[in-house]
Amino acid sequence: MQRRENLLYVGIDLHKETHTAVMENCWNEKLEVVVIENKPSEFKKLAEKVNRKSSILGLNPIYGLENAYGYGRSLAVWLIENGYIVKDINPALAYDQRKSAPMYRKNVEYDAYCVGTVLINQLHTLPDAKPKDNEWTLAQLVNRRDLLVKDGIRFKNGLHEQISMAYPSYSKFFSEIDGKCAMYFWKTYPSPVHLQEKTAEELTMEFKEISRITKKDKAKLILDCVKNDGNTFREYQESRYFITTSLVRDLEHQKEELAGLDKEIEKILLSFDY
């Protein structure tokens, strides 16, 4: 077990563009402050300054990063790959340390100092930072998937708003607004005007190109509902055609991207031991 007095503590407050590092000794004395950009070429500069200070003082450097798996992941990976000891500091611990001061202060240098203080006080209980590439990549894929799912909900809500104006009874002939046949129909016939002189037989043949199990009853039901709904034509209809077809294209692209992401997630899951 390492003795606290033999170490140079480097607390780092991490941000998207820059990182602030504060070097401290075991008595919480601030020795030096270093600000670097969040890029590998700057990581080496930080390590060189820390090594210089630790060599002068005869101490071994140890790094504490507040959430080593967020903005500081690249720095954590670089430090570990270059043989440095890196501890992961839970943001809640650094927050509690800041609040414990008689006068609450909030600036990056003081935040880094608080991270260093947590590193000193809880040296033997803090976990080592272990930013694994497969875990990080999986998290990025899952985040991307969540965004795509939210986009899909937004696109479907927008499509419903347009379709319910043109086809008030659309839910009677398409249970899912984004089904294969439904998507083809909205893109080809964004309003009943485009169905003029279209027969049930012709519509059924088109649907069978999309789905072989389509029945003639589906096409007949659509034409009957359109007739019973009455005239839904409004001014600026051309602009609404564009909105409808644009939303369909967005949904189609979203579905393609989602399918691709699911394949990537399946592939990366194979890299895990469980």
Automatic annotation (TrEMBL):
InterPro entries: Transp_IS110-like_N (IPR002525), Transpos_IS110 (IPR047650)
Coiled coil: none
Domain Transposase IS110-like N-terminal as annotated: residue spans: 10-168
GO biological process: one example: DNA transposition
Domain of life: Bacteria
One term of GO molecular function: transposase activity
Cited Pfam families: DEDD_Tnp_IS110
UniProt protein name: Transposase
